[in-house]
Amino acid sequence: MAILESMPDGILYSNILLKLYLRSLKNNGKLMFNDRIPYNAQMLSTITRQPVAVVEKSVGIFKEMGLIEVLDNGAIYMLD
Description:
CATH superfamily: Winged helix-like DNA-binding domain superfamily/Winged helix DNA-binding domain
CATH class: Mainly Alpha
Number of helices: 4
Strand content: 5-15%
């Protein structure tokens, strides 16, 4: 978390990550709006109360850091 927070806008990314972790607890680490519809950037923006651009950037960073995996169907799995 310290590495993430040391980045520019890192506090925002950390906040988004924590919100995604909490939301994923109901589904064993899987983030989906429902059984068929994965969250998109706009939806994640709404639930995290952050701008879409910040959410998109954070998702890219989370993938690079191995914190999430985005499947072909759009489902997001929280890995760490």
